[in-house]
Amino acid sequence: MKKVTVELDWDTVDNIVVDQLKETLSNLEDDVVHRQTSDKVELAQIVFEYDKEADCKMLQEHANAFKIVLSYFGHTA
Description:
mainly alpha; elongated; single chain
């Protein structure tokens, strides 16, 4: 396998990181909604806790943490 070296400027790296943070935040928020609205418990739905309320709380806490990190970088969710 050939290796390829790529040089990125800091703005590009920052944009990649911010995009990934925003995408993960969006996924966490989707998980909260899906977990709250679903009556059936499937293992694929469970992210942190088997208990629905505890899982939703943990998901929301993680989403809030991503919002804080994004604000540190000068971005909004």
